[in-house]
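User: I've been trying to design a sequence by hand for this structure and keep getting stuck. Would you show me what you'd pick, starting by listing the structure so we're on the same page?

Assistant: Good idea, let's start from the same input. This is the structure you sent:
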């Protein structure tokens, strides 16, 4: 009898517990939604107030600087300020500055741009002129305004890239290619950016290729209320670790443990000499060198755009292949994270999902959006039931960024590359000695 009463009593206890917990859970969820939308609102207000400009960099024909000059320039863009206080982040909507480094081919004419906030223009100009004194920086109209994806009769293919290995593994940089050596014969140098520039400069009239590299200074992530978990109270407090450097230490430890001897407990013993191969030593050294420089959160976006009647799918592999030379088996590399298309027609019979993706990546490119809402997510970004694609930035240091975005010297002889016809500011020939 008591057992029967106990069984009848269980549902009452459960319902009473749920009745007590559900209101708190609903309050938590509503507060989380409100807070997320509030942050989005004040950030958008801040972005609109700040505004943006697009700067074109015109490079002289006789540039002799190595990509190290660009690395020094990028050091000046590593700005972590602007969101240091709680009031700045959660009441004023301030964020640290981000920049868009762009290489663009319009009908085969190649241009270099930097998109930024107007308040950062002076910093960018100072950094560029300090390293490239004969360059010219001019404000430009946004070339994206010339294209209307919905009514202009354009066909488009877009990609966003991700790394092939964990963040700590560096890509193959200009140092591995020997471009850091000064005074060597230019003809014997190999610039990994040249294949991409040659491809972009070789496309025909009416075809357009855009490469967008969005960057912001990397720093330890503070607690994000929108990512807290109801079931994990630990996530409600504290600060997140610097995953970039922590992952680097973990990868180095993993490599060392793979060759380490075992102690009595059967665990790797790192106190004894390690029999590392030369390749493993090089990998450890590359990881340590990578995390020893300034890091940037990065998102890379590629777009090929042309009128429907001349759109050539053969340009798509060349666009992605232009990033192959930055990777290797022992280093990191780039691969498409998602694209605006399916491999098989039955994956999107009516074409609505692909159309939505194209609009998303086109709008995100034009807005130079990646790190903040509404550009952090893509609805149904992968062929999964109800799946979504989240734009998660990866980390590259200044050396890696200078490898994929720098002003090429005499190594790159692409005839369509937009250089200045002569050096600016040549001193008079009759100056007294």
């Amino acid at each position: 009898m008591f057992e029967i009463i106990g069984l009848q009593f269980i549902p009452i206890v459960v319902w009473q517990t749920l009745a007590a917990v559900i209101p708190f859970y609903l309050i938590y969820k509503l507060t989380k939604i409100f807070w997320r939308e509030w942050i989005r609102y004040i950030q958008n207000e801040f972005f609109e107030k700040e505004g943006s400009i697009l700067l074109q960099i015109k490079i002289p024909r006789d540039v002799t600087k190595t990509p190290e000059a660009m690395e020094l320039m990028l050091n000046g863009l590593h700005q972590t300020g602007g969101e240091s206080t709680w009031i700045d982040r959660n009441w004023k909507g301030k964020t640290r500055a981000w920049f868009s480094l762009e290489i663009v081919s319009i009908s085969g004419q190649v241009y270099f741009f930097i998109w930024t906030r107007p308040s950062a223009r002076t910093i960018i100009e100072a950094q560029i002129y300090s390293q490239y004194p004969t360059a010219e920086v001019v404000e430009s109209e946004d070339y994206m305004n010339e294209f209307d994806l919905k009514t202009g009769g354009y066909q488009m293919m877009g990609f966003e890239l991700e790394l092939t290995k964990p963040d700590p593994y560096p890509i193959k940089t200009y140092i591995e290619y020997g471009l850091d050596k000064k005074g060597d014969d230019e003809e014997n140098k190999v610039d990994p950016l040249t294949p991409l520039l040659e491809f972009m400069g070789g496309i025909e009239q009416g075809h357009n290729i855009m490469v967008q590299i969005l960057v912001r200074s990397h720093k330890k992530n503070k607690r994000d209320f929108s990512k807290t978990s109801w079931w994990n109270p630990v996530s409600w407090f504290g600060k997140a670790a610097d995953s970039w450097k922590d992952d680097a230490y973990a990868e180095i430890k993993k490599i060392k443990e793979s060759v380490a001897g075992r102690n009595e407990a059967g665990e790797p013993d790192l106190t004894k000499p390690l029999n590392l191969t030369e390749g493993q030593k090089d990998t450890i050294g590359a990881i340590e060198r990578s995390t020893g420089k300034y890091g940037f959160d990065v998102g890379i976006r590629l777009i090929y755009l042309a009128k429907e009647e001349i759109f050539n799918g053969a340009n798509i592999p060349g666009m992605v292949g232009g990033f192959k030379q930055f990777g290797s088996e022992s280093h990191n590399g780039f691969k498409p994270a998602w694209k605006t298309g399916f491999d098989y027609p039955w994956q999107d019979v009516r074409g609505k999902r692909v159309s939505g993706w194209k609009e998303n990546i086109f709008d995100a490119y034009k807005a130079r959006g990646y790190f903040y809402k509404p550009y952090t997510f893509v609805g149904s970004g992968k062929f999964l039931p109800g799946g979504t694609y989240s734009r998660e930035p990866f980390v590259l240091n200044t050396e890696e960024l200078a490898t994929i975005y720098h002003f090429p010297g005499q190594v790159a002889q692409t005839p369509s590359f937009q250089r200045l016809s002569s050096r600016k500011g040549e001193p008079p020939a009759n100056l007294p000695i």
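That's my pick for every position. To get oriented when you compare it with your attempt: DSSP finds ten helices and 14 strands in the chain. Residues 222-239, 381-387, 425-433 have pLDDT under 50 and may be disordered.
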